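Sequence in, structure out. First:
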Amino acid sequence: MPKLITACLMALLLASCALFPQRDPLRITVVGIDPLPSQDLEVRFSVKLRVQNPNDSAIDYDGLALDLEVNGQPLASGVSNQHGRLERFSEQVLDVPLSVSAFSALRQALGLSQNQSLDNLPYTLHGKLAGGLFGTVRFSDSGQLRLPRN
């Protein structure tokens, strides 16, 4: 009898996995950074993200959170209560305000060698689009910081 119950539970578990379709990961790229008014010892800026949904189903989201690491160290974080729907095979540009504390900026400055500039530093962006119990989508993007040339 216990073997029969175990077999039935295993069959139910496997069948329930089929209810959650496999999704391709979202494609997230940073497409812009704009300054925002700062307060006291923090710097604020808005990060523009292009979010592409390569899936055959829409993704509803209700909130967004980001963490930015530069040169392997945490630098900025931010949240937004934006909500919406990313239609199937579509894209949107989302703005997320990020804050850099004075201590994070100081840690970054101390981590640079004397010959190293801010240009071409590696960055990693981690985030999530909140979508309820089973709808949250996590993402990441990485690359090199490219400062504008005059």
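Second:
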Amino acid sequence: MLSYIVYVAGIWVYYVAQKQTVSKAFIWAYIPILLLLPDYYRAITPGLPDPTFNQAASVALFVAFLMKGAPGYRFSVIDLVVGFYAFAVSYSEFLATNYSDAQNLMFYELTSVFFPYIFAKSLIEPFDLRYDFAKSIVLCLCIVFLFNLFENKMGYNLWQAYLGRLFPGQGQGWLTTFRFGLARAAGPYGHCLVDGIVMAVGYRLQRWLQWSDAWPDKIKQLAWVPWFTPAQFFTLMIFGGVFSTLGKGQWLAGIIAAGIVIIGRSKKRAQAMAAVISIMSFVGIPLFIAFLDYASVGRKNAADENQETAAYRYELITEYMDEASEHFWFGWGLMRWPEIPGFESIDNHFLLTYLNHGVIAVMLLLFIIFGMMGRLIRHGMSRPFSEPRGSSLAFTLAAIFLMYLIAITTVGMMYQSCTLFFLITGLSEKYLRISTWDGNQRGGDKVRIAVDSRLFKFRKVL
């Protein structure tokens, strides 16, 4: 019965949506619940799907969203792509098992994939809330960072240690790992690498907020400190959060993705793009070849722990491709593939999706990543140079998609990292369709309202 506290999250979000607006409930109630509460604790409910905090909040917000007339929503083709992805994942599990076993995964795809996509698409850009959305994420991750510091030092997770008491028998499979003599912080996200992905997204959004002058110059209580600004403080906090996870794959993904942001910050974007592509080609290709040589030696011949980890991930692909191809279209079902001894953990989301749900789900996911990244870069290149420098949202969002592409080749896109991905997808889709401004003179001020260009066409006719 203690686990039923999960439903309080849904009640709170619904209350805020009714007393305030659906947009405020989404940004200041749903987002904190998503990022501050673990997504691996469930309310075990007989005869019904077992919701997490995030899922209970998602259902409540969606009900309020429909009751308010689905404000801000306009259909687009990407809705079908995201919806079909969620359906393909759910249907694959149904084929592999039955409805009773598959209902929780179906519920997950609906509440943690499709609903968040719709929320982000409908409730951010149409109401000029891009800064509020990013600030909510940054503030939540700053709180997570403070808990991460404790986990780094003490070696145990506070969410599991205390909140876990309300969910006996749940979340016990997540163990703290160590690197460089420190515990690798996992926060409320289950695994340190998932924490690393979420923090990397937060860092990119915070840098965009900082470059857009979206934070105030001073906090009244700290105005006497000559060097202190809120933007710098939050940037250091989120950077610390990225470091606290000690995830080298996520660090590398963030560094590479920064190349897209460099293009957006350059006044000569065509030359900057040529330079970035050249560097990635002349440096990246030899490094990739060297990595293949480094990783293909086999774990038995690895010289150290780092090479052994690289060899393991290389061997995963060669060992599991035949098993995946046996259930080519819809996979084996969630975690039901024939396990190969010595390869218990599938540290590659694309391979894991191929095994679990088949090639259709993999192709749809890649279509979303490459499609959005390409559209955002093309949009950013076609717009006038944004002031202040770096305030172009297009290049920041494109960098996040590239970061995801690289990072999830080393870890599964699980829990909040998955939901956050589809939130970014929803924001990106609406931004590309209706945004009439990109960058401003003072980020905290409302400069222009993003209006759907399909509205008010009669004015043009008159």
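Remark: Residues 441-462 have pLDDT under 50 and may be disordered.
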